[in-house]
Amino acid sequence: MKNGEIMNRIIMDSIFGQVRIAITHEDKLVHFFLERETNWNNYGDIYMGRIEQIKPGIQAAFVNIGSEKNGLLHLEDIIPNEDNKPIDKLVKKGQELLVQIKKEAIAEKGARLTTKFSISGHYLVLLPYENRIFTSKKISNKEEKNRITTGINEVKDGNYGVIIRTEAMGIDLDIIKKELNYLINRWEKINHSEIAPKLMYNDSTTVVKILRDFYTQQIDEIIVNDMDIINELQEYLAIYSYQDIEKIKYVDKNNLLELYHIEKKTMQLFDRKVWLKSGGYIVIDFTEACTVIDINSGKFTGKKNMDETILKINLEASEVIADQIRLRNISGIIIIDYINIKMKEEQHIIIKHLNKHLQKDKVKTKVYGFTELCILQMTRQQQGKSLSMLQSEHCRLCGGTGLIPNQEALFYRCLASIERNKDVLEGDTIIIKVNPYIKKLIDEIEMKNEKFTFIQMIKDFYKKKSIIEEDEFLEIDEMKVLSCVDRHLGSN
Q: Residues 139, 167: contact at Cβ < 8 Å?
């Protein structure tokens, strides 16, 4: 911060192959991204793939692009298909085909692929095989729209289509035309005769994508602690905004996010519960099918009537939800359970307020409205992996449910095992082998000296001493019961 001045920044913190990128507006976090050297099959990358299987039943084909799981190519994502032919008439098993990542692989699902290619630039998006010009809805001025469209038509080849991005507003036509030629050149350099599977085109690193999608003249500084990234930034700005290279600042320190007081904010992006300023809170849960967000009043009681109190919490929650969806890069179906919103008038107020704050998001969102159960439905287009996917994995202890067996459940599980093989009761002591995670859970409960513990229940039931031992070869839900005399294996 310069002499206490409020700044707009892009902060790029690099350490051990990971780059964390924070974009701040007036020192408030508005965007956050992660890039790792291990990331691959990224959104926008183009591959020469090979058709491995064709599934007419779902009108889709599985394509080998060299990743662990084959990508999925749906009929609707194959062009040209003017005659609406079925997929088995368009592609054949073993055929090599150029495809682009439309949606990155998630969990057990492979990447979603398309042949509707796009090459993104700072001001334009090139659409090979199209012949139309599309304009960002945010360019509302008709004169400006006509100026750019006319300029592009002067140089555009009939074999290409173009999307005019919002960033093109007010930009000199010569610069826009120069980028169009640059994008066409990038597309034409892709070799369509390579042997699959092979990466043919990398859509750029996250660093370049951030500049392409988020850099504007309103950015005061670009703070970086890695010289390789600085070189990458300088090369990009030399093409698009040479005079802004001076905004790049090298800071020789680790954890720039802490230095600029936003580390705490980024860490909160992994919390399940997010508190509101009013004292209410939202809870964010992820399932295979959708993301569920629940709003709670928490500590907030309000000073006026109940309806006004509830509406105030719901409006505040809408702002926070819009921010969390954008910052966490949550995509797909999103369901929001507001507090007691039944009146149509209040529902319209909520939808209008939520849409207003979703406008900060560059990724396409759509609010569908409330269901009969007063649950709001919306969607957000997938672009890259969410923060939760990049930074977490399923818990081996709970299997991703968020739940672990309590002491009573462990007792009955052990009881069933012993009753199936009562020979283990011949000795003075029962040996119970469990997974190391379960052993740690049991030990922690024992240390609290609670009255009803797993060990105490076994002792009271069988009048025998029990010993818990860990076995790293056991699964979470497995348990072995042995006699202390012969260590005979009990059935599970």
A: no
pLDDT at 3 over 50: no
pLDDT in tens, 466-480: 899 999 888 877 889
The answer regarding whether domain 117-202 maps to CATH 3.30.230.10 reads yes
Average pLDDT of the residues of the chain: 89
Encoded tokens for 289: 């099918």
Beta bridge partners of 20: 13, 34
Question: What pairs with residue 46 in β-bridges?
Answer: 100, 201
SS3 content of the chain, % helix, strand, coil (to 5): 35, 25, 40
Please give the Cα distance from 429 to 463 (Å, whole number).
10
Long-range contacts of 363-367 (CB under 8 A, 24+ apart): 363/326, 363/329, 363/331, 365/325
- Among 3.30.420, 3.40.50, 3.30.750, 2.102.10, name the CATH number for the domain at 1-40+204-269: 3.30.420
The predicted pLDDT at position 302 comes to 60
Q: Which residues have CB under 8 Å from 259's CB, separation 6+? A: 251, 253
- pLDDT one-digit tens code per residue, 85-121: 999 999 999 999 999 999 888 777 899 999 999 999 9
d(CA 65, CA 113): 10
- What are the structural domain ranges in the chain? 1-40+204-269, 46-114, 117-202, 271-391, 407-483
| Consecutive H or E run containing 102 | strand 96-103
Answer yes or no: are the C-beta atoms of 171 and 147 closer than 8 Å: no
Question: CATH topology for 46-114?
Answer: OB fold (Dihydrolipoamide Acetyltransferase, E2P) (2.40.50)
HSE (side-chain half, CA atoms, 13 Å) at 404? 15
